[in-house]
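Sequence of Tripartite tricarboxylate transporter permease (Psychromonas aquatilis).
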Amino acid sequence: MEFINLVLNSFSLLLSPQILIYVVAGFLIGTIFASIPGLTATLALALLLPLTYSLDVSTALMACSSIYMAGMCGGSITATTINIPGAPSSMMTALDGYPMQLQGKGPLALGHAAFGSMVGGALGAILLIALAPFVAEVALLVKTTGKFSLLAFAIIVIVIAQRGKVVKAGMAACIGLMLATVGLDAMEPMTRFTFGSSELTAGLDLMPMIIGTFAISEILIQAKSNGCAEKMVDALKKIKICRRDFIPPLSEIRKVGLMCYLKSSFIGYAVGTLPGAGGSMGSFLAYAETVRTSDEPETFGKGNPKGIVASESANNAVCGGALVPMLTFGIPGDPVTAIMLGVLVINGIQPGPQLMSGQAELIAPMLASLVFSALILIPLTLYLLGPYFIKIVAIRKDILYGIISLLAVVGSYVATFSTFQMMMSLVMGILAYYLRKHDFPVITLLLGFILGPNLEEFLRRSLSLSNGNPMTFFTNYDSLFFVILTLVFVYFLAIKKPMKKPY
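Predicted 3D structure, token representation.
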């Protein structure tokens, strides 16, 4: 209770103009970086890290937390408007956000994304404040076998959630898993599938994969489009967009349902507490769970607001969850919290079980900034700048996609400082273009690539510890829990639902 009071008292720091400027500036910078493919919030924080040396620790951590929150919600802007997620955590948002944009409901889609981000971010931060020590202990109960089963659960569920395209989704996921094996072996100091190329020794980087799969392939798709983009622009020109259009009506929020917001937020927070899971897995699992429990699963991917809300609520709730292992054990939950860990260490703060009691007064302002960013800055930014976000699609197609192509290629290079990886983003773009052209869901390819390395590592570690006995996944309770959960999802998504509503 004492820690909660410290957090509440820390809100008074935001009354200081200097601190407020840093927090707001951090949020705007994070939003801009997150909305541009290749320029993630991680990069923004890394570039701005030297500036934190001149700030006191509370101000530096408050600015970092606002960038973190902005980085999670900012990717939904381009995911919705032009079908190119600015951040990996917004990949699922594009599945329903862009169809709504094509239907002339772009402002409403962005409104749902912002409202979901606000609820998820605020709940994640509140849960962090209230439950951090307890959740950290629970997360430690998930051992190596449990982590493998969790990752396998995520891949299987997302594949079978692609209704009508399960076989193609499975094939795309396998391609992603295969690409993840390129480079150094996960357990031994040897290279695999490099074909004698030294550039492939480090494997394929995630950012060029994302940029190629979404940005480059989308540019190629639009170049061959039959005028859908022009029709959308013409439709938007006929509609007078007001700022109130970005505020979802109460009837729309009721249609989505309170449970969708709460359940997705809890899923995101729980996933965030697992080191290395990140916002992508949180949004994947929340989206799949929303499809599973929906009475109209066939509407997802065609402009269902619940898909947007599930994805954005979960990936913003991850912010609160990912800080749990970082603060209590010094284990970063994702790349952003790894940089924030560096800010703590630089300022002489050692994360660990005693942090919440010994130096709580230094951590409390950061959590207050997290809540402030979610509840105030997310909706305020959309309300003030929303009309300008929508106008992205009104830019001439050749100019818009020319700029995006330049940013995508530059973003690939900036993310890796490798010309080879930059070229790989172009190769992946062409591959993703042909997959999309033949109706393969590339989202499962990227999921396989993201989760592949950890999936292989935990599988081989588990089998090594059990002397090659696969029954270890059924005899350990943490693993058995996720195995049973997988079977439940398979039943509801692939057996029960199709019997009622055939493909």
